[in-house]
Amino acid sequence: xxxxxxxxxxxxxxAVARPVTPETPLAPTLRAxxxxxxxxxxxxxxxxxxxxxxxxxxxxxGATQDEAAAxxxxxxxxxxxxxxxxxxxxxxxxxxxxxxxxxxxxxLRAWHGGQLRSRPDPEAPVLGALDLLVDEVAAVAPVWAAxxxxxxxxxxxxxLVVAPANLLTPRTFIERLEPLRAAGVEISVLRRGQLRRxxxxxxxxxxxxxxxxxxxxxxxxxxxxxxxxxxxVGKGITFDTGGISIKPAEGMEEMxxxxxxxAACAGAMLTLALRRSPAPAVAVLALAxxxxxxxxxxxxDVVRTYGGRTVEVxxxxxxxxxxxxxxxxxxxxxxxxxxxxxxxxxxGSIVVALGHHYAGLFDNDPALAxxxxxxxxxxxxxxxxxxxxxxxxxxxxxxxxxxxxxASGRWQPDACHAxxxxxxxxxxVPWVHLDIAGMEAVAEASETAARGPTGFGxxxxxxxxxxxxxxxxx
Length: 474
What we know:
The protein is 36% helix and 21% strand. It is an alpha/beta fold. The chain has two domains: 2-136, Leucine Aminopeptidase, subunit E, domain 1; 151-468, Zn peptidases (Aminopeptidase, 3-Layer(aba) Sandwich). α12 (366-379) links the parallel β14 and β15 (383-385). The longest helix has 26 residues, at 137-162.
């Protein structure tokens, strides 16, 4: 959605949203309509008023007026005025951060994923332009520029996740990263021969049976000062059948979303590039398609991962931790980062534990974990800290390899075991693992969330970098 910052409304605009608090004074006509509707400006309340110039939507911010409330108000505006091509949000009198959050929420809610339809979706929103009315354009412009970059990154992640697996393979995923290259991100790719020569046994095993061969993509932003980069590591399974440990047919079509971790990392790198973040950053994306076949890896196999550690395979449907093991190992040895955050739609058990309300956070560094949690809270991408107990690691002891891939078969609730496995490959580098299964997509649209991919993690990573990795003295 196109956003323009303006001081006054365009005469062509026929719908205006007015974010209000319980103390906001209203014109007599609006006040009378609000009274009849029982609207008091509480967070989540709305009241649509028809006036001679056009529709006015009153949107409640509540008494606190924080960024989360402003994002929600912007999202409700985009939802309730979706049938209008162009709207205005009146942010006069609001601080620049809250004004920008209104536009951010509207842009995120206005997105829809019906681009592959041969005919227009009659239920798709027609809203395509927003005028954000502010007191001083110069004061809001830099704040909105940073939020606009985050929206662009989240949009890229959503477009990658919504793409079907026949159109998004490991190779075509990389082809769709051209917006990053244009923004200044350096992209290098390791293909099957290079992966084999360098010992990426986990990635090659998972992708071995597919006609679409695996790739490792490395995205780099050099930054504006000399320091070890922050590294993002993403699971990018473009489709997951489960391999030989094949999944049930019901719901398997949703496995195109197993790319969401890599998509979020790519989106975060685009965001950092667009807003010219000074922080050095690298993303390592492990891309593969997990298929059954004569060349598929098997339960009982022993796979040598990048760096030499051997893994006993228990379940080929636990493929995400195999590709992440290689990507983490590569990040530790070749990038030597100051911190690693990996993102993956890794386990169904984290959905059982946390539902569709939080991503699971696991770590080996309490300070980094606290920073990530704070960034998630600030951006509306919440996480919940989960344990890695001593017994979780002990359960992965193997009689024939350095460690087992998981504790037992697929029905073991093993989000904690998966994190214990991945921690081995971080090798003491400050590390956070985000299991974003359950958060990568929304099953049903609401006033504040569009149906489909969310781009979860993009804005969290951007806020994390902005708050903790852009100071060369830190």
